[in-house]
Amino acid sequence: MLLKQYATLVKPEFERLHYFAADESRFGLKTTVGRLITSLGVKPFGTWTRQFKAFWLYGAVEPTTGEPFFLQLTHVDSECYQLFLDQFSQAYPDSLNILQVDNGAFHKAKHLVLSNNIMLLFQPPYCPELNPIERLWQHLKQDLCWALFKNLTQLQTKVDNLIADLTTETVASVTGFGFIVEALFVAGIF
C-alpha cells in the first residue's frame, strides 16, 4: 500500500521510480573469522590480526534489477551520509529514488538536505533482516574470511575488486527478497 502511494508521487520531471535498499558496512583489518573444514574434534586454526583500522562502504542496490551503487568513506556520520546521498542523486537524476534505510541517527539528521529525486523509506527499528543489502554485505565478506591485509589500501583494493566482480544477476539473486519483488510488481514499479 505504501509503495502505491509513493508510485503516485512520481512527478512529470522523473522518467521512472526506483526502489533501492541502502545501508553502510564496516570493512576492517581485524581478521574476520569464518568456518574452516577440520577433522572431527579439531578446533579450526588460522592466522589472524587485531588491527582496528577500517573504512565504511555505503551502498544501495535495486533488488529487482541488481543495479548497485557503492561509495567508500572513512567513517559513518551525517556528513558522510550527505555526501553519499549527493553522489547517489547525481547518479540517478532522471528518476524518483526511494531508499529503504534503517533508523540510524545519521539517516534522520536534521541538517540533511535531500534532493528532490530522493525519498527515504524507514524500515521498522531493530529489523536489519528486512533490508536486502544486509545479505549482500554477508556475500562480500565471505571472501574476506581469514584474509590478512598489511594495510588499509590492500583491503580497499580487495573490496574494490569484489565489487567490480559483482554482476547484476548476482546482486539480484542475493537481494531479491520475494516479498519486496512482489510488492514492487503489485505497485507497478517493476
Description of the molecule:
- With 190 residues, the chain is an alpha/beta fold.
- The protein has helices at 2-7, 78-91, 133-142, 152-165, 168-175, 178-186; strands at residues 16-28, 54-62, 67-73, 95-101, 118-122.
- It has a five-stranded mixed β-sheet, sandwiched between helices.
- A hairpin with a 4-residue loop joins strand 2 (54-62) and strand 3.
- It starts with a helix and ends with a helix.
Which SSEs are present, and which pair or pack?
Layout lengths: L1 H6 L8 E13 L25 E9 L4 E7 L4 H14 L3 E7 L16 E5 L10 H10 L9 H14 L2 H8 L2 H9 L4
Parallel strand pairs: 1-4, 4-5
Antiparallel strand pairs: 1-2, 2-3
Provide key terms for this protein.
190 residues, 5 strands, globular, alpha/beta, single chain, Nucleotidyltransferase, domain 5, five-stranded mixed beta sheet
Task: Put the structure in a nutshell.
The chain is an alpha/beta fold. It is built from six helices and five strands; from the N terminus they run αβββαββαααα. The chain has a single domain (2-28, 51-186), classed as Ribonuclease H-like superfamily/Ribonuclease H (Nucleotidyltransferase, domain 5, 2-Layer Sandwich).
The CATH level-2 architecture is identified as 2-Layer Sandwich
Name of the CATH first level:
Alpha Beta
Q: How far do the termini sit from each other?
A: 15 Å
- Estimate the mean pLDDT confidence: 87
Helix content: 25-40%
CATH fold-level assignment: Nucleotidyltransferase, domain 5
Q: What kind of assembly state do the chains in view correspond to?
A: single chain
Q: What overall geometry do the principal axes of the alpha carbons give?
A: globular
**How would you characterize the largest beta sheet?**
5 strands, mixed
How many individual helices? 6
Quickly give the structural class. alpha/beta
Strand residue percentage: 15-25%
| Number of self-contained structural domains | 1
CATH superfamily: Ribonuclease H-like superfamily/Ribonuclease H
Can you write the helix and strand succession as a string? HEEEHEEHHHH
- Biggest sheet: strands side by side, in what order? 3-2-1-4-5
